[in-house]
Prior knowledge:
The complex is a heterodimer of chains A (about 220) and B (about 60).
Chain A: H1 9-17, E1 20-25, H2 30-35, E2 43-47, E3 53-58, H3 63-74, H4 80-89, H5 93-105, H6 109-121, H7 128-143, H8 147-161, H9 165-181, H10 184-197, H11 204-222
Antiparallel strand pairs in A: 2-3
Chain B: H1 3-21, H2 37-47, E1 51-56
Amino acid sequence: MDTVVFVDSNAIDFFNTQMVLTKVNAEVDSALAKHYHVSGYPTIVLTDQTGKEIDRIVGYLATEPFLKTLTDYKNGIGTLDDLLNQAKTKEDRALYFEIADKYKYRGGSVEAESWYTKVISAGEPKDTLTAKSRLAIADMYRRSKDYDKSISLFSAIAADFKQGPAAEEADIMTAVAYRQKGDTTMAISSFEKFMKNHPNSEDTAYAQKQIAKLKAKPTEEKK
Amino acid sequence: MSKLTMAVVIAGLVVLASSASATLVSEPGHASFYTTMPEAIEQAAAKNQPIVLKFFTDW
Lengths: 223, 59
């Protein structure tokens, strides 16, 4: 981002005249990163003059959509407040999903789960938005370190969606959650199951690497 | 001077030092930026502009 967006002449003009750009090293100012519930990088948070969040951009965007999104947010377009207002008069699962995502990114896990649940209840049991919402809920439990709940939810998704993309993600995330939980045996077996169920996945190399690492772990500990 | 008073004085000096060192970073061909929240808030109020916080790591 630093080598593309912030060196673009439009971006330089934009930040010199319209917004106060501040770069925060989250490792150095961890209190500020924690305050804004930053969990992925890069995260761009637009705030008012007092530091109150207006909205955020998580991940990379090219210069033009990046500046447009910031301008829209500044004008109250596409912000969480704007979407919540729209949801008062519009029944739209995609809108509910967007609201849930926004809560998730800013650390509002209770509100996020509630909106993902609305998406699920208003849709079909096996449609894409239902799958994405269920995956998002399971992943929030993983991030909050409730690994047992997360594993149970991911396993249910894998069972319900069989061999599709949702099952693929659920299978690998089950293995990741076991690894994070510290259950090496179940982590290895889950990564192996993932490789067996999804041999053509882009994540097979990652799974293979994880299995090798986990198998090497007891040997390293003996040294 | 009590240990508590000393700690308060030291904490105050650290805050002063850190706010004094916060300056606009200007590099040729790159958007200028600040590095601390107190200075961002001060500048935002002076310019009547919102703040853009870009969080990053060196990982």
